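User: Hello! My lab partner asked me to get a predicted holo structure for this protein. The small molecule is 2-acetamido-2-deoxy-beta-D-glucopyranose, SMILES included with the sequence. Please write out the structure tokens.
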Amino acid sequence: MISSTFNFSSTAIWKTLAFSTLIIIVLVIFSNQPNSLQTDIIHVATNQSFLPLNTTNVSHLVFGLVGSTKAWRYRKPYIESWWRPNTTRGYLYLDRTPTDDLLPWSQYSPPFRISDDNSKLLEETKHVAPIMVRMVHAVIEVFREEREGVRWYVMGDDDSIFFVDNLVDELSKYDHTKYIYIGGHSESIISNQIYSYDMGFGGAGLILSYPLAKMVQQNIEDCFRRYPYLNSADLILMTCVNDFGVSVTPHQGLHQV
Ligand SMILES: *[C@@H]1O[C@H](CO)[C@@H](O)[C@H](O)[C@H]1NC(C)=O
Ligand SMILES: *[C@@H]1O[C@H](CO)[C@@H](O)[C@H](O)[C@H]1NC(C)=O
Ligand SMILES: *[C@@H]1O[C@H](CO)[C@@H](O)[C@H](O)[C@H]1NC(C)=O
Ligand SMILES: *[C@@H]1O[C@H](CO)[C@@H](O)[C@H](O)[C@H]1NC(C)=O
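Assistant: Hello! Below are the structure tokens for the protein in complex with 2-acetamido-2-deoxy-beta-D-glucopyranose.
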């Protein structure tokens, strides 16, 4: 070792040469074997799903917010604090046509939709909580409306506050092509105890991957028929999603207040 430092010009050059020859030989060996490491590298690099270009961004999220016409003027500031007109996608679902004081509709609010009339379904299922049925039904209404390039459906109330960039970063860590249901545990241990730790508590926002939302869309009416006695939206959704064999993926960043 010591001699090589003093005798740099000869020993080091020889070592360098020997080393680079080794590299060349290794490369030659690999390039002669089309099915080995080299092809694997190319294969991964060309798979667009792994490129940062294709990572989740704000356009892949669709928000479904459920509110009431009567309360909207009090709730609007919560939503407008984070909503980005023409950037964030989604709708506010109202129970009835906006009253004159809400018109013209603010361009800084999400566009509104009137929730589907579920009276027939309610009559048939005798569901105990019509308002909750409306909230869960919003999942399939927003799915019906926005599908192009959607990876995640984010369901919230008319007073939910989302930190959009943070949400995008967090969601990009999950595989949106799988059945994923993300929710927050309740801050109340008792609630978790009663309703199971498998529940995403709705006050905190519930997030469904595209394939899961599609499955909910196909089956939710049957869930209402099976569980007419469930009296909260998050509980209905949890039970239904659990029936498909999907458990909640708890996320510590979702909070009910
Ligand atoms: C690319 O990656 C995805 C996973 O994100 C995988 O499902 C797919 O099969 C891959 N495609 C190719 C051509 O390897
Ligand atoms: C981006 O990923 C999706 C799957 O999430 C895939 O269907 C699509 O082809 C990819 N886009 C590009 C440009 O590769
Ligand atoms: C989000 O990514 C998609 C490709 O997956 C791209 O078409 C779209 O323009 C991007 N949107 C933003 C706001 O970057
Ligand atoms: C959103 O886009 C529409 C049409 O492209 C435009 O008229 C409107 O001013 C935009 N809204 C905001 C808040 O930029």
